[in-house]
Amino acid sequence: MQATEMSIFAKVKPQAPLLSVKGLSKRYGTRIGCTDVAFDLWPGEVLGIVGESGSGKSTLLSCLAGHLAPDTGEVVFATASGPRDTLRMTEPERRRLARTDWAFVHQNPRDGLRMGVTAGGNVGERLMAVGARNYGSIRDAATDWLGRVEIDASRIDDRPSAFSGGMQQRLQIARNLVTGPRLVFMDEPTGGLDVSVQARLLDLLRGLVREMGLSAIIVTHDLAVVRLLADRLMVMKSGHVVEQGLTDQVLDDPQHAYTQLLVSSVLQV
Amino acid sequence: MTDQSYNFAYLDEQTKRMIRRAILKGVAVPGYQVPFASREMPMPYGWGTGGVQVTAACLVPEDVLKVIDQGADDTTNAVSIRKFFQRTAGVATTEATAEATVIQTRHRIPEQALTAGQILVYQVPIPEPLRFLEPRETETRKMHSLEEYGLMHVKLYEDIARHGSIATAYAYPVRVEGRYVMDPSPIPKFDNPKLSDSPALQLFGAGREQRIYALPPFTRVVSLDFDDHPFDPSKAPHDCDLCGAAESYLDEVITDDAGSRMFVCSDTDFCRSRREAGHVGRLGETAGGGA
Ligand SMILES: Nc1ncnc2c1ncn2[C@@H]1O[C@H](COP(=O)(O)OP(=O)(O)O)[C@@H](O)[C@H]1O
Ligand SMILES: [Mg+2]
């Protein structure tokens, strides 16, 4: 036994997955939301989920993040104290996870920001939620994060309602990343933004992902987003995962007819 | 003289039992907001219907009742509540804090230290301290049950960001025995230290919102703050112009058209007792004669 553990194979053996999903299904009455989804997400990996509107991307993401209870399946997360099926956690445990190890970036920044609270307060909230009690340090962290998402420090005491859509989205990202979450869920983070604004946000996200070594699951209908950000890709159609693999492989050599349509831009969604 | 067409203290015995159960539950879980079925009272909401119901459920014929509004016994609100209980319960009333067994209050804690056996009943307009940032009741209830109180500090953060210091001067949030975050009703933060470790029983009634909560005697109550912006129960840097008290909460009073002003104790009973004991403030001679 000991000899095996000390062998070269033990050293290159990959760690456990960060998130391991099996048999995940969610129906709305008779309609399929998503069905029999399974995948592993490895630490430091960005998984893109693509598919046309109504293919089940948001349903899947909501089930993964604990916002929606799936009918069947398991979502095992590598917590600090070992792997746990988050669907079998108590609500307090899941909420604690949601404000510490996890983060969720909504498509509409209004759903992910407190519009009546200043930019600094929005960024500081997660810090205060985990016990930060020094105003100066909270403010320093907020200033630092505003800078990292390219919002001028002079805007720290402005409310998000005074910000453009792109700035609001960047603020939402700062607010989510400030506590260094281990897994970030994003639902169409560039959706609803002008094309030029999208490009800037994508660049920024790519920088953060690389710099922080983020693990993330990003839902999008925009292949440009996954090409830039995702290591791996999952293609959904009518609630089913029809193809998954490395992003370049899937995009350059799509196997499933539906993916081929997506990639050849015949299907514009 | 008790008006015989009412039950003692106006409320019927069933209602009082229901309210007493809520009070007992509140005492058992300090700082926890207990829902209760608030009754229509012969006065509008905002006039202390929650406090009145709590007082009604606590009163016994031997009680001596004091009612204050902003520290004064003679304001309309205080007078009408006192009259209400004189009529419906026939209890003795007083303005002297030390003589009262039950004190109903709006916006103040008496200056004179309360003693064992006394009950202080607060009128509460909005019992939910998290309401300011989270309007959803289902969510705030969950936050209380899971002790998710980060949002309370977001409120204080916003204060400092806007005003340079924690500007919240009334209804300053507190943590009770390290567990529930509680709104102490709109008392000035100057009064917050008196909430803690009091020998008296403190009961809070919110009529419109149908909530009762409590601080049993000798409960530890801590005002929320930041390490680098500690809680400061500041008061105006003056002495009372009538009685000279340096440590009491003061009201600013405009005395003439030329804008002359004076500072006087907001607790009228405290001020009068001091003057009767011979203390004199800066303007005490002129004002003291009439008291
Ligand atoms: N709350 C809901 N009630 C009923 N059906 C829903 C609900 N949300 C989504 N659906 C259905 O589930 C399917 C997947 O939707 P969704 O997950 O929103 O897809 P996507 O995010 O890929 O656009 C669609 O057929 C949609 O109509
Ligand atoms: Mg969607």
By CATH reckoning, the class of the largest domain in chain B would read Alpha Beta
Q: How are strands sequenced across the largest beta sheet of chain A?
A: 6-7-8-3-9-10
At CATH level 2, the architecture of the largest domain in chain B is 3-Layer(aba) Sandwich
**Order of helical and strand elements of chain B:** HEHEHEEEHHEEHEEEEEHH
The residue fraction in helices of chain A comes out at 40-55%
Number of domains of chain B: 2
Discrete helix count of chain B: 8
Name the chain pair whose interface involves the most residues: A-B, 25 and 17 residues
The SS-based structural class of chain B is: alpha/beta
Largest sheet of chain B: 7 strands, mixed
Count of distinct strands of chain A: 10
Query: Beta-strand percentage of chain B?
Result: 15-25%
- Uncertain stretches of chain B: 287-291
Low-confidence stretches of chain A at least 5 residues in length (pLDDT < 50)?
1-11
Instruction: Report the end-to-end length of chain A measured between terminal Cα atoms.
Output: 54 Å
Radius of gyration of chain B: 20 Å
The Cα radius of gyration of chain A reads 19 Å
CATH superfamily of the largest domain in chain B: Bacterial phosphonate metabolism protein PhnH
Give a description of the structure:
The complex is a heterodimer of chains A (269) and B (291). Chain A is α/β, with parallel strands linked by helices and 269 residues long. In chain A, 40% of the residues lie in helices and 24% in strands. Chain A contains twelve helices and ten strands. In chain A, the strands form two sheets. In chain A, strands 6-7-8-3-9-10 form a six-stranded mixed sheet, sandwiched between helices. Chain A has a four-stranded antiparallel sheet with strand order 2-1-4-5, with helices on one face. Chain B has two domains: 211 residues, Rossmann fold; 41 residues, no CATH class. Helices cover 28% and strands 17% of the residues of chain B. In chain B, α1 packs across α2. The longest helix of chain B is centred in the first third of the chain and has 16 residues. Chain B is globular. In chain B, 47% of the residues are buried. The C terminus of chain B is likely disordered. At the A-B interface, α4, α6 and α7 of A face α5 of B. The complex binds adenosine-5'-diphosphate and magnesium ion. The site of adenosine-5'-diphosphate (ADP) has 11 residues of chain A, from β2 and α3.
